[in-house]
Amino acid sequence: MQQINPQLRIIKDEVLSCTKCPLYKTRIFPVIGQGNHQASIVLVGEAPGFNENKTGRPFCGQAGAVLDELLEFAEIKREDIYICNILKCRPPGNRNPLQYEIDACTPYLVRQLEIIKPKIVCCLGNFASCFIMNLFGLSNQCDGISKIHGRVFEVNDDKWKIKIIPLYHPAVAAYNQNMIESLKNDFKILKDGKLK
Ligand code: URA
Ligand code: SF4
Q1: CATH number of domain containing 128
Q2: What is the pLDDT along the chain (196 residues), one digit of tens a residue?
Q3: Disulfide check for 37: which of 5, 111, 146, 149 has CB 3.0–4.6 Å away?
Q4: Which of 12, 13, 14, 18 is the best mutation target for the ligand 2 pocket, counting ligand atoms within 8 Å of the beta carbon and taking the most?
């Protein structure tokens, strides 16, 4: 049985009524995060899209179909990992997150990571990669996703023993077979728990 973490439950309640940035005005449901509260792998995406806004579930649309293919390839079950985003509410028209929205929203993500304490964080796309790398003191190595995708950045300090892996966002692969191959190649590293 899935253990529900009471601290994650508190975050859920806070996000459901959050008005810290204007995106609350157009959300139907926030996408708080889904999956195993004791996950050793956390995936961080960018923001909810059209379908996610309607359901409150991360990666349930077209990008989600690509992600599911990648997870299947890596033999990882969704229920064993935790999936969340930089922004909990959908930017209108799926535009890029704005800096002040990221500043307002990411304290929730940071708390989620502090509670779950994963061994591995996979960052999907540029926004997630830059935010997470900054958070873990790796900003000087955040060089654009096309250069750093698939690399493993290790953080080992007083607070964290964690591996950060920037990846292309699955949405870029929705119509591009070459990108799928590149993503699969990067996902190989997650296969067989090679990193644990
Ligand atoms: N794209 C994301 O970055 N996150 C989602 O949850 C869905 C699409
Ligand atoms: Fe709050 Fe984040 Fe939604 Fe903005 S995007 S309203 S900060 S939950």
Answers
A1: 3.40.470.10
A2: 577 899 999 999 999 999 999 999 999 999 999 999 999 999 999 999 999 999 999 999 999 999 999 999 999 999 999 999 999 999 999 999 999 999 999 999 999 999 999 999 999 999 999 999 999 999 998 889 999 999 999 999 999 999 999 999 999 988 899 999 999 999 999 986 666 5
A3: 5
A4: 18
Asked if residues 136 and 160 have their Cβ atoms less than 8 Å apart, the reply is yes
196 lies in some domain: no
Is 107 inside a domain boundary?
Answer: yes
Query: Containing domain of residue 136, as a range?
Result: 4-191
What is the number of domains present in the chain? Answer: 1
Ligand nearest to the CA of 129: 1
| Alpha carbon distances (Å) from 82 to 3, 45, 85, 95, 112 | 13, 11, 10, 24, 10
Atom nearest to 85 CA in ligand 1: 4
How far is residue 139's CA from residue 119's CA, in Å, rounded to a whole number? 20
